[in-house]
Fold:
Amino acid sequence: MDTKQTRFLQLMEENKGILFKICKIYQDDADDRHDLLQEMTLQLWLAFDSYRAESKFSTWMYRVALNTAIAFFKKQKRRPDGEKIPIGFDRAEENTLAGEKEEQLIVFYKAVQQLNKVEKALVYLYMEDVPYDDIAASLGITPINVRVRINRLKTKLKEIINNMNYEYR
Amino acid sequence: MNIDELKDAWKNEEPKGMNFQAEVAMTSKTTSAVGKIRRNMKTEFIAVLVSYTMFTALMFYGVQSVLFFNVASIFMFIIIVLNCFYYFRFYHFYKSISRYDLNIKNSIRKITYELELNAEIYKTYNFCVTPLAVLITFVLLCGNNGLGFMHYVLASKAYISPLNLLIAFAIILISFVITYICINHHVRTQYGKYITELKQVMDDLGDEE
Structure:
């Protein structure tokens, strides 16, 4: 294995959480998640030569990964993007989890599946506390627009989560 | 619950169940829209080579008509030249496709543009090539009648009658209509869904302050 490959794999291992979260946000089916993860890794590897150490690897990584996730088309015969998660889904599975926050996180991920691809990118960047200016630069929109969109996004998520019989404050 | 209060849980979440080998993914085939279309084009290119071989075999061993052989040879040569030109373009087109830009809006715009451009090149290519191929197939399918008609139209010393001229035009027109329907259907299935979805993303990224 050459030095470039070793370095790439090491950076991937250190930052795999980024890919994990983006996959969870963009795909709710395990097979689709795996396909997306594979595609993101491939695209990161193909683009690795363009990575300049001027910015953090994690920043470069989430930008390439989000680009890939947005332009990714799941295989046919699987549940299409537009299909809604049933309202009032069975919570028995989630109740086995230890913490209340973890359970809320599961609900949150289910709610996020009902957003469009751009909103999902916003959710990821917002949850990671990326500054608004950087979000604007990543998405190619203005910082004011980012603020407006995030406010709308919170309202939309609130509605979705309330419809799932969870209380959203 | 509130998403701001979830940030800590989000950041502390471990990538559980992530049984994944990056080494394998690095050598896998891309599933991107452009990648899929590139693979389809490769398959199509192989199919074209196979069909040329079959046509050539048929011309030499199947149809005993000097006129058909002469005309079909000329048509085949035109088709091969057109194919070489377009496949050369496709090859360069795919080679030149840039990787993702770090700005999502620019990146999606670029991919959409490239897909639309390729769809148009593909349509032009097929409008040039397919009617000629359809005409040759049409004559072959009509057997002796087709060959007889072709002989009458092309080898006669007299002017062609208006009725026969109309028949010839109708055949050419039909071949164009068949091409049009098939190509549009093919482009819609191959590119349509990708372009529509990417345009939707572009719309979602449109400024709305």
